Amino acid sequence: MRRAPVVVGLAALFGAADQFLGSLSRYPWAHEASLLSAPWLLVGFLAGCTQRTRRRAALLGLACTFAALIGYWVMTLSPIEGARLTAYGIRGLLVSQSLVIVGGLVTGPVCGWLGNRWRDEGLWLGALAVAAAFCLEPLARAAVDSAIRYPGAIRYPAVWMGEVAGGLAMALSVAIATRRRASSQRASG
């Protein structure tokens, strides 16, 4: 559990960096990149990969997800973003983020648990599910955009191609690691 504070700190930095990326108005693609959801799943998954027990992995996945959210919120309400910290601003932020909070309560522990299962047992389906989220998010956002005319589609090809490429790279690394693990088990068994 010695790594936990470092992992939680890195998660908070991820959240703050994600919010800062979205504020770079000079680069219009940066706002869209900051709105991607799949990278947030990776926070809990990677946290879970650092733990030896399922329970600790799930708890650390939850803690890291919320550390990332808190980092995001602190940056949102900071003077760096041109905001003033007020009780009204905090309340408004938390109300506007209520669905994100509920989502984090589910995805944080689940992704942490999946990260631990990947680390300890090579449970490749969970790792592949995280990779699939990267690959499928652009399609899901485009479908929602066309179905309800919500401007959710990713307009910058570099953003959605980068996300899909990241997902494919993860899927490839999962396949390679799974094959290596199976080979070493056959050799030792």
Summed up:
With 189 residues, the protein is an all-alpha fold.
Question: Could you characterize what this model shows?
Answer:
The model has no long low-confidence stretch (mean pLDDT 91). This protein has one domain (4-188). The longest helix has 32 residues, at 157-188. The protein is globular. α1 (4-22) packs antiparallel against α2, α1 (4-22) packs parallel to α4 and α3 (38-49) packs across α6 (98-121). It has helices at 4-22, 28-34, 38-49, 54-76, 87-96, 98-121, 124-148, 157-188. With 189 residues, it is mostly helical. The protein is built from 8 helices and no strands. Helices cover 80% and strands 0% of the residues.
Strand content: under 5%
By DSSP (H or I, 4+ residues per run), the number of helices equals: 8
Principal-axis shape equals globular
**Helix proportion:** over 70%
* Overall SS class: mainly alpha
Please count the beta strands (DSSP E, at least 2 residues each).
Answer: 0
Detail the poorly predicted runs: none
Radius of gyration: 18 Å
- The N- to C-terminal Cα distance equals 31 Å
Oligomer: single chain
Describe the sheet with the most strands. Answer: none
Total discrete domains: 1
What do the pLDDT scores average to? 91
User: What is the chain-wise order of helices and strands?
Assistant: HHHHHHHH
Notable characteristics:
189 residues, mainly alpha
Helices and strands in order, then pairings?
Elements: H1 4-22, H2 28-34, H3 38-49, H4 54-76, H5 87-96, H6 98-121, H7 124-148, H8 157-188
Helix pairs in contact: 1-2, 1-4, 3-4, 3-6, 3-7, 4-6, 6-7, 7-8
